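Q: My labmate handed me this sequence with no annotations at all. I'd like to see what the chain might look like in three dimensions before we decide whether it's worth expressing. Could you predict it?
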Amino acid sequence: MPPLKILLKRTLLALLIILALVYVGDSLSVFLRARHATSTNPYETVTAYRILAIGEKGNKTEYDVDQVNPTQSGECVHALFPHKGDPPCWYLKHKFAQPIPMTFVLSPKR
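A: Here is what I predict for the chain of 110 residues:
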């Protein structure tokens, strides 16, 4: 085999091993913190306002709080990766910070 091909295989194998070790360490960290859990560690319930992004004329956008369901909640885990079906808190907080795009479709008149 050419040396470049061997180098690429070894690099890929090293990256996979490092990723597996990080995941195992993350899982172990969550497991140990769950044994002595507090209200916000390792699992937390995040609550945020539901912000709607409403498109207007002239490519402008108005942002408003949802009047029907003003808040959204979700359980998350303080970790790098998802655990037990809960997303990581860094991901959930980022997702909740994104406004929900609203589009209006006019139906044809009858």
